[in-house]
Write a structure and sequence with these properties.
Length: about 300
């Protein structure tokens, strides 16, 4: 297989051949109009950022970090999107990909377009970006929106712990979310069933992610817990499902809404008590009193605070 060109090479797999003389070895981008598929090295990416990135929007650390993670974990793929330069040699589009390449220390394959009219900057990135759920739907997956939202929470749980849910740097990349949903076909089914059960009480992504985690410990008990929570029929005033339902009903009508971290903590705390057969007098989570996030692992710690 023929290797892809760098700025000192030419020709490209599937791309129009570019004469060697037109691709300078210097960092400055060519000013004549051309499109080439090439392998951009970290050294070339840094040179372009240093010398050509003179008129661009502020860089988002979260965005380039997410791309770098995908590159390092092998999820970044050639897709035809181009790094774009103006006829004046100014970088118009691609600064985050280039920064990710530098930080990851890995080359990446991309199209590069040189010599564009500088005024085309006004037309770049004005369309709606495809969300993970859009791409999952295209694969024929049902309940994609809720499944992808729940997958985000599950990935945070698996990699960092749910206590990091409000930390932007803990959130997975789009490709991680897509891979998780595709590789866990049970999740979309759970998203449709549990999301519909509980949508009047809590955001479906929260209920679905919690059910997915809880049912991995005890399927039958998790079904009963969520049925009790969703229906609220004939529940004892000592039932954890009763107190969780009451808190969520109260939150629906309250002006001061609970943060997602607190809702997840209440779900986990109620589940621990329900699973372990502990009766409740009230349900609360008090991080201000140094209460840690509930550990749902079996033997990981009993639900505390407000239990009777």
């Amino acid at each position: 297989m023929e290797s892809l060109p760098t700025l000192s090479g030419a020709g490209a797999n599937g791309a129009a051949s570019v004469p060697k003389a037109t691709l300078p070895s210097a960092a400055v981008a060519p000013t004549s109009m051309m499109r080439v598929r090439m392998l951009v090295t970290p050294q070339q990416a840094k040179a372009w950022l240093d010398q050509s990135n003179t008129s661009n929007r502020p860089m988002s650390d979260l965005h380039w970090t997410a791309i770098a993670v995908d590159m390092m974990e092998g999820r970044w793929r050639y897709n035809g999107d181009a790094i774009r330069f103006s006829s004046a040699g100014v970088l118009l589009d691609g600064q985050h990909r280039l920064r990710a390449c530098v930080e990851a220390g890995l080359p990446f394959e991309t199209d590069v377009v040189f010599g564009l009219d500088p005024t085309v900057m006004d037309t770049i990135d004005i369309g709606r970006v495809r969300r993970a759920s859009d791409l999952v739907s295209l694969k024929g997956v049902e309940n994609a929106t809720v499944a992808c939202a729940a997958a985000t929470l599950l990935l945070i749980h698996d990699k960092f712990g749910l206590h990091r849910v409000q930390n932007p740097d803990a959130h997975p990349t789009k490709t991680e979310v897509i891979a998780y949903v595709v590789n866990n076909p049970r999740l979309p089914a759970v998203a449709g069933r549990v999301g519909n059960w509980t949508k009047r009480l809590v955001a479906p992504r929260i209920a679905v992610a919690c059910y997915y985690l809880f049912s991995a410990q005890n399927q039958e008990l998790a079904d009963r817990f969520f049925k009790d929570f969703a229906q609220g029929v004939n529940l004892a005033r000592t039932s954890p499902a009763y107190y969780l339902r009451e808190r969520m009903v109260e939150d629906r009508t309250s002006k001061r809404k609970l943060q997602i971290l607190e809702i997840l903590a209440l779900f986990c705390k109620a589940w621990i008590a329900y699973r372990d057969g502990v009766r409740m007098k009230l349900l609360r989570w008090a991080p201000g009193n140094n209460e840690t996030f509930p550990d749902i692992s079996v033997g990981g710690g009993a639900a505390q605070g407000g239990l009777g």
